[in-house]
Amino acid sequence: MATQTTENLNENVTNTEESSQEKKKPLFQNIDADEAAAEATEIESACMSCFRTGVTRLLLTKIPFFKEVVLMSFKCEFCGFENNEIQSASEIQKKGVHIELEVKTTADLNRKVVRSDYTLVKIPEVELEIPSQSQKGEITTVEGIIDRTIRGLSQDQDKRRIEHPEAAASIDAYIERLQDLKALKAPFNLILEDISGNSFVENPTAPAHDPNCKTTQFMRSKEQDQQLGLYDANAVDETVGDKKVLKEDKHLLKPIPEGEWTLEDLHGEVLQFQTLCPECRSPCETNMKLTKIPHFKEVVIMATVCEVCGNKTNEVKSGGGIEAKGTKFEVLIESKEDLTRDVLKSETCNLVIPELECEVGPSALGGRFTTVEGILVAMKNQIEGNDIMFQDSSDEAFKHRFKDFIEKFDKILALETLATLVLDDPAGNSYVQSLSDTDEPDSKLKVHKYERSYEQNEELGLNDIKTENYEE
């Protein structure tokens, strides 16, 4: 009897665990007509009209080809007041992004533009500036940005012509200048500066390099971090009751006493910390380990596995500082042996395949330790999986060009076409394995050290580093 009872308990525990695993769903679910609708969360909240208690419904979901959002709907049963809002829930990137597009043709006017709530929009030729957080994030086009500005200026113009005729005349003249931009009477520049790093301008020549659009990343200032709600613990004064928290008590990461952890201990230890899944935003754990790559330097390897959606990611970060010079590797790919070379790509490394006129920016693939074949497959998957640029296009010529590009990429992976993989890392933290018996590059590998430009130092944040009297 006791044995049977134990078996029943074990069976019930197993069923409970299976049912709990089945109930696990991503925090942000896709909007899909084939699947059951995601469940909304209901919470009680005060009505801003009559100040009685109403109900707010929250729905966390993902809009296809865009980002994660939070849909909010409030209704008061007493006074009938209703309010519906949508808020961005996308991840804030590590760096801000500055995009400068030269608009020359009708095709440039039709480029898709994704801009977040924190995007500053400028058109210098007409002195147009749309401040950050003055408009909600949206998916639009270059022409759509101009149209929205014209609609905003045209509001109440009839009333303004009667009450303030001079102001109305000035606005009419400015609207004509905006109409001239739409008519492309002269080329103009569209500048997007997004401190959250979530803005994007379509590249119609993708996956080739975009000659008319320049994208750079920049380090945010302290004020910009605070605008995004990111605060340094040392900069926030905390008070609990009448007691002020000591500065050293506010550190999330406590200093390790000298001698408690040796370098050998850190090499053998796998550290874990809580994080959010980059795909579905569900809580998960990231494993981190310090290791050394032979003939190179120490690196930090991080791996994340999400039990909810099954997403797996791995990332490599340099364990040392920025090198004195940038490094450029050129790898000739013509045999299976070339595909097996070990490659460490840092998060500042740019990838180029000249034969395909293909360029992948440093932030696209992040840092990773893999092989030449692994890098090529990751580049192909990144380009194929970018739905906003390719899969949603109605341009048949564009689709045909992209199909030809993928076929050429497959031929390189199948070693049917010779190609060169170029890794350009201004920080000097990338590495490509040499197949020679010594540490010197072999006949198919070229390594070039170069002095960084001012723009590259600016992107790495080196121009503002103070090395003398920095304690002041």
Query: Ends: how far apart?
Result: 77 Å
Look at the structure and give the mean pLDDT. Answer: 78
Count the DSSP helices: 12
Q: How many E-type strands?
A: 27
Question: What do these coordinates show?
Answer:
The chain has 472 residues and is an alpha+beta fold. The protein is 26% helix and 31% strand. The protein is built from twelve helices and 27 strands. Strands 1, 2, 3, 4 and 5 form a five-stranded mixed beta sheet that branches. A hairpin with a 5-residue loop joins strand 17 (283-292) and strand 18. Helix 4 (157-163) runs antiparallel to helix 5 (165-182). The longest helix has 22 residues, at 2-23. Residues 1-10, 16-23, 238-253 and 387-393 have low confidence and may be disordered.
